[in-house]
Amino acid sequence: MTFRNIYVAASSQHVGKTTSTLGVVSALLKRGYRVGYCKPVGQKFLDIKDMRVDKDTILFANMFNFDIIPEIHSPVIFGPGAVEQYLEKPDNFPLQQQISYASEFLSKYHDVTIYEGTGHPGVGSVAGLSNARVAKMLGAGVVMIVEGGIGSTIDMLNMTTSLFREEGVPIIGVIINKVYPEKAEKVKHYVGKWLEQKNIPLLGILPYEKEMVFPLIRTVAEAVNGMITYNTDYIFNKVESIIAGSLIDLKELKSSQDLLLVVATRSINEAIKKIESIAHLHGIHQCPLSGIVATGEGEMNRQTLKYIEKHNIPLIRTELDTYGAVLKISKLEVKINTNTPWKIKMAIDLIEKNVDIEKIINASLLRQN
Fold this sequence. Notes:
The protein is of the alpha/beta class. The protein contains 15 helices and 15 strands. The radius of gyration is 23 Å and the shape is globular.
């Protein structure tokens, strides 16, 4: 079989490109295809030994067990200052050739390569490498990811697919992500109707999963510019919800075991005492806290420290006030990564259960005359 490459694009950042790409790669592998992965244009990177690679490339290498070759799996990275350097001397940066080389290499060893886009479709235009232009270079068809809604979703699709139409890039279909289950039928009907008019297939609707947006304690600490002073081995605890020290009640304590307590340090002793009291009165045996953010100055008494140590609760100290800390945490955009294995599994399951993979395969097959 001969396949057209598949390019996973999205209407904007944090819409679900990595989630969808994980699911599509996994589904094709399960069907016996040799599947390659590439992030042709990256922005956020890590330096590992002598390699500079996009963060998403590391996730896929770990997940699907391939050895990273930076110039193949992450050929172009726009790190800090890269755009300015390119604009000063564009001839020094053979970016298109780098991507073409990666594509030629991958095509030798795989039936199909999945290319993961970056940001919204126009990202990279400054260097002639918009998502649409790169997809055209790669001879790829596009799977477009967009957030759920009706009017706003159609407006966004109309704008973002236009760049690919201008480049003559075929749209394999659309995946609508983060749709509340009670609205799924309406979204499917009305957005599907619009897509049908445009001759664009609807590949699937992914339900909104609260757990996919849970941050980690480590991410919280970075957001509030804080320091983890106790139980640093538990920085990968997930956070389901936030409770304020002044608003602790039974309902919240019973609803989760992954609560983040955000409290002024001067009030932390009273807050912990209240949590212990409610738990004792109502037979709550599991500690409901996955972490604590203690804001401002203050001292903790021995009882508080004993509770933190007994339950292995990571404690973050920050100079922000409580309102400022909650504001920072509430604005967190949480990406799937190697430290969130439950998200990786959920992503793969979501695609397998809700997306028509066979439709993607059929649209990507290049029929021989």
